[in-house]
Amino acid sequence: xxxxxxxxxxxxxxxxxxxxxxxxxxxxxxxxxxxxxxxxxxxxxxxxxxxxxxxxxxxxxxxxxxxxxxxxxxxxxxxxxxxxxxxxxxxxxxxxxxxxxxxxxxxxxxxxxxxxxxxxxxxxxxxxxxxxxxxxxxxxxxxxxxxxxx
Length: 150
Hints:
This protein is 8% helix and 59% strand. The chain is mostly beta strands. Strands 1-2-4-5-6-7-8-9 form an eight-stranded antiparallel β-barrel.
């Protein structure tokens, strides 16, 4: 389970909002990248895009929140043997724990970036993590924020 504690999730997704103040947003696209350091190097891979909801308020980050899930069985590294092993009981145990979950408890601005602190649950282990992210406005008819959690 220690290797799972070292997972760094890079959640990249686009949030759609119609106004510049906070509003529950729909995740419209994205990917979930990760890297895990182990004795022989670093393993890189992806999961499918997260699902869930987000409330983001650039002017008042403290009123923002994220509640995201990732389907654990969508794990891909480009190596079928490794993927099968990581989905097994030894690591993610996807048949028993099908989702990875992150729910923020605090969102704040640090310099020109933001960070979301909250509970990350992988398998039956929950830990408090802080995920730095950037938010950029994109004007395409409606207000869009592109948020990169790292």
